Structures are given as C-alpha cells and as structure tokens.
C-alpha cells in the first residue's frame, strides 16, 4: 500500500516566538523553520512500515509557499520515495488543508494517511479528523502504537483516561502522538540521494477546492505575564509562604 | 441570540467536570438556550447530573448501544444531525473533544476553533497559539455555525445551585459506520484526584531519576490531597504513565496550587501550567527557567527538601 504523510513546515520548536509590537502577527523573519515535530514522527512510522514490507511507497505532502522545497527534501532525505508540494503563499486553515489532502487522496489512493496530532504553530489539532470526515473513513488520533495488517489497523491511542485500543478498517487516517517512535537522523549521503527523488508541484488554485475560512484573526498579543515570585531559603519558610497565601 | 449545543463528556456513568466548564463558556455567549447532549448506551445517570448544572435549558438523552464507549466516527454523524437547530456546538478541549469536534466541523463544512480561552461575545473569542506564547483574537462569521472546543484551564465549572433542566429522549435516524471498533481501555491508576480538575497538583521531572524515586512525589501529593503530574522528560524516561504528562502535548491544567519538583521548565511544560494560581518550584539549579514563572521558589536538593516538606505538613 501507499502511505501519504502530511508534512508541515513550522517555526522550530526551540524558537521563543515573539508577537509583533503592532499585534499583526508573530515575528517570522530570520526565524528557523523545521518540520513539525509530530510530522517527523508520522514520517518515521511510515518508513518503518515500508521497511517491514507493509507499505510499498511513502509520499510526503506539504502545503506551503514556493520556498518550501528544502523542507520537502528533508523528508525525502529521511527516506520518503517522493514528495508533493501544494504551493500556497498564504497559510491555510485546517479545513482547507483537509480538502487539499482529500484531492491528493483521490489521485493517489493511499491505504493509510499519517499526520501529526497537531502542528506546533496553530496548535489546532484538527486536520486529521477533518480529513477522515471528508473522506468518510475511520480515524485513530493520538496514536502511540500502530499495527497494520492487510485490511485493518490496530491503534493504541493516548487519551486522558489512559490508553485506548481501536481497530480501524483501511484505508484510514491516523494522527500520531509523541511516544509513537523516535525519528531517525538524516545522513549526508541521503541528502545527496534526495536531490534526485521526484517532487511534484501543484498550485493550490488548480485544485478547485473551497478555501474559505470562516474565522478571521484580528489581533495577536503576548500572553499575560506572571508577577515576579520570591525565593525562600528553606522548608519552614516555604510552609510559611504557603500559609500566608491561604494555601495550607 | 445563541442556541448552544454542548456535547457531554462522561465515563462509567459519571459526567466529566469538563462539561460544566463548557456551560460556563456557553453562558458568556449571550445564550438564549444551552442544551447538553448525552450520548450513551445508558444515559440516565449522566443526563441527571447534566440537568443539575446552572443555566442549562434541556438535556438531550441519546440512548444507543453504539454510543458506548464514545467513538468520534460514531458520534460525529449524530452530532451533525442534532446541530441543525443550533448556532454553536461546543465540547471540551480534551482528547474526547479534540477527536470528535473536527470531524463534526468538517461534515458540516465549517471552520473550527480549538482551545477557546476567553469569550468576548458570541462570535469573538481568544485562543492561544505557539504553545501559549501568543494569544489571538478571532472573529467567527456570525452567519455560520461556530464549532469550538473549550480550554478547561480557562473556565471555572458552572455550579449546581439552581439547575433542574428537563431531560428529553431523542431518537436519531442516522446510519452509523462500522469501520471503527473499540477493543479495550487500559486505564491509568484512578486512586488520586483527576489531574485536569484537581485543586492541587504535585509534579515531578527528570531530576527524580527513577520510577521508585517518584514515591516521594506521591507521598507529598497524598499529604496535600493533590493530583500527581509529570514533565515530558519524566514520562519519556518511564518514571510515570503518559496520561500524567503536563504541558503543550500533555494536559493543560490550572490548579490553585502547582508544585513543580525537579522540573527545569521548558516552554512546552510552562504552557501547561501558566494559569495555575500559585506555582511553587523546588529545583537544585537556581538558574532553571521554572523560577521565572514560580511564585515561590526553593533552591536545593529535592531528595532532602521534599520529604522534609511532607513531614512539615503533619
């Protein structure tokens, strides 16, 4: 089977994001960009399924501005067979992303679509379930273990109450959680090899999808700052400070 | 005027307090009606609890064997059918709501808002992005249905002083999919207060060094009647189960008292505790970022200080 992996480019998770003083957005100039950490885990899982002989081909997909080719080359260097770049100069909302992915699914007919459980920029956690809904297929979100057989997958999900195990018929959408795996490092020869792997470019306008967003962000602001705290020197002082605040 | 449908979260016959927090958010939306939908194979007990919540207009009881345990694929088409008469559909931003609501929104062809943290009016709200490092004000189109998940740490649970909503059984004629099957739930230990609703939380980090050493965290938590949490480092190291993780990728909590022990305070962890009432940090590294947000800090060896603190609470 083919596996499609949604592979978003985001501001690197180590960057302390700053809001622009005029409240129009966050500072993005000169800021390091990387693959969304959850998407690296999704790609790693797809590669492992191919190494086990379950998947025949792994395709990474991104929806990003024209300069995102280096990002996709990273995915190819990690081991994906080919890449699809849907070019959109504007960031797209999750519903639009799901509609784009559905278009690609209609062409590619994958047996499994893997996504991160959320992107660390918009923190929405929506695209996977939205895609599953539009595709009318099962979803297994927050996966920490995925076992794929011929026609179904058994997925362990990290939910608030503990671990839930679901069985889903294929094709299906799975969104991955942190503990699913440890993504591999990219080796130099693989970077060279990635340069000759196929990369298809599609302008988002040519997909004829409804890209409307019913929500408009009108303002960005930094979070409220907490008051500076005090240091106490020992346990009795700590207990006294807690009592003074009425907490004991 | 808003007509709001809230999808109840429940387990083992108990309504989750997350539902009462959604009611608080709904009440801030100039609600003309707030209805709670209880999907279950045996909804009576949960429906009765939901009916007591202040400000609730009606409880809709959706009795179907396929509704237990709750699966997003099964619930979503039913929620879509119910949503017809409503301007808003809300659910808690828990793994339950995060799994279900985007599926509902896509079936309805609507955008969705995740982690609504402040209601400004029925269609204007705030939500966090970038692990809480920026807060956005979002305007939703008033001629569309607003589908939103409610961030639990931002809303108090509505009370039960005056609520006595009627409970109505609703039968939906909706085909349900069979492509998704529940196999089992491996529940975490439930003998301590629930992390997401606890008034006090004691959390341990990598510095504990082992699962055995976490016993000093449990001892302190039990003395305080607190829930136990952990940093991602402690979970990854296998000291505790992953459902105890606090932070951007774990649970976002807002207890009155949060005690962080041996936790350095990575951005992703701080996101999960920013709204706590009082943050106490115990760490041997006085330069650790946790001290930038802590209200009370104590620098020193946790293996000496934590048992001393536990003993001092006698």
For the residues shown, what is the average pLDDT of chain B?
A: 95
Give the oligomeric state. Answer: heterodimer
Strand order of the largest sheet of chain B: 7-11-6-1-4-5-12
Distance between the termini of chain A: 60 Å
Structure description:
The complex is a heterodimer of chains A (248) and B (314). Chain A has 248 residues and is α/β, with parallel strands linked by helices. In chain A, the strands form two sheets. Chain A has a nine-stranded mixed β-sheet, with helices on both faces. Chain A has a two-stranded antiparallel sheet with strand order 2-3. In chain A, β4, α2 and β5 form a beta-alpha-beta unit. In chain A, α2 crosses α5 and α3 crosses α4. The N and C termini of chain A lie far apart (60 Å). Chain B is of the alpha/beta class and 314 residues long. Chain B contains nine helices and 18 strands. The longest helix of chain B has 14 residues. The model of chain B has no long low-confidence stretch (mean pLDDT 95). β12 of chain A pairs antiparallel with β10 of chain B.
């Amino acid at each position: 089977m083919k596996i499609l992996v949604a592979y978003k480019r985001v501001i690197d998770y180590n960057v302390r994001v700053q809001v622009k003083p005029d409240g129009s957005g966050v500072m993005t100039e000169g800021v390091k960009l990387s693959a969304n950490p959850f998407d690296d885990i999704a790609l790693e899982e797809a590669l492992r399924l191919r190494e086990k002989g379950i998947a025949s081909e792994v395709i990474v997909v991104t929806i990003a501005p024209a300069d995102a080719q280096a990002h996709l080359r990273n995915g190819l260097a990690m081991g994906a067979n080919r890449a699809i770049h849907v070019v959109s100069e504007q960031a797209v909302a999750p519903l639009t992303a799901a509609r784009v992915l559905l278009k690609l699914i209609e062409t590619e007919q994958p047996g499994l679509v893997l996504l991160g459980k959320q992107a660390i920029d918009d923190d929405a956690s929506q695209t996977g379930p939205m895609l599953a809904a539009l595709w009318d297929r099962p979803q297994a979100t927050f996966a920490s273990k995925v076992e794929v057989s011929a026609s179904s997958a058994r997925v362990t999900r990290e939910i608030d109450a503990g671990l839930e195990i679901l069985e889903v018929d294929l094709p299906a959408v799975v969104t991955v959680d942190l503990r699913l795996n440890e993504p591999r490092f990219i080796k130099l020869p693989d970077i060279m090899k990635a340069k000759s792997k196929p990369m298809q470019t599609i302008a988002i306008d040519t997909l004829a999808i409804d890209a409307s967003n019913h929500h408009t962000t009108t303002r960005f602001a930094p979070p409220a700052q907490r008051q500076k705290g005090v240091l106490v020197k020992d346990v009795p002082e700590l207990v006294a400070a807690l009592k003074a605040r009425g907490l004991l | 005027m808003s007509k709001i449908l809230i999808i109840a979260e429940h387990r083992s016959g108990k309504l989750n307090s997350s539902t009462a927090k959604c009611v608080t958010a709904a009440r801030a939306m100039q609600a003309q009606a707030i209805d709670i939908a209880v999907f279950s194979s045996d909804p009576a007990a949960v429906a009765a609890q939901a009916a007591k919540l202040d400000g609730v207009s009606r409880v809709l009881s959706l009795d179907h064997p396929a509704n237990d345990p709750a699966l997003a694929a099964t619930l979503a088409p039913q929620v879509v059918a119910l949503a017809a008469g409503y301007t808003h559909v809300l659910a808690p931003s828990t793994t339950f709501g995060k799994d279900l609501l985007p599926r509902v929104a896509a079936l309805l062809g609507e955008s969705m808002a995740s982690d609504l943290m402040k209601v400004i009016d029925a269609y204007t709200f705030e939500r966090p992005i970038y692990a809480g490092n920026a807060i956005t004000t979002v305007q939703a189109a008033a001629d569309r249905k607003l589908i939103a998940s409610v961030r639990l740490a931002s809303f108090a649970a509505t009370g039960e002083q005056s609520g006595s909503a009627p409970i109505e059984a609703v039968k939906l004629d909706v085909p349900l999919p069979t492509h998704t099957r529940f196999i089992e739930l491996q529940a975490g230990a439930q003998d301590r207060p629930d992390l997401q609703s606890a008034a006090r939380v004691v959390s341990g980090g990598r510095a504990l060094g082992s699962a055995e050493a976490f016993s000093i965290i449990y001892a302190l938590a039990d003395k305080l009647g607190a829930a136990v949490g952990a940093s991602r480092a402690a979970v990854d190291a296998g000291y505790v189960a992953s459902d105890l993780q606090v932070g951007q990728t774990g649970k976002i909590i807002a207890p009155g008292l949060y005690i962080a022990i041996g936790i350095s305070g990575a951005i992703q962890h701080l996101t999960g505790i920013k709204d706590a009432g009082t943050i106490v940090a115990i760490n041997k590294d006085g330069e650790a970022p946790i001290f930038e947000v802590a209200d009370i800090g104590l620098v020193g060896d946790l293996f000496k200080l934590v048992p001393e603190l536990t003993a001092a609470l006698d």
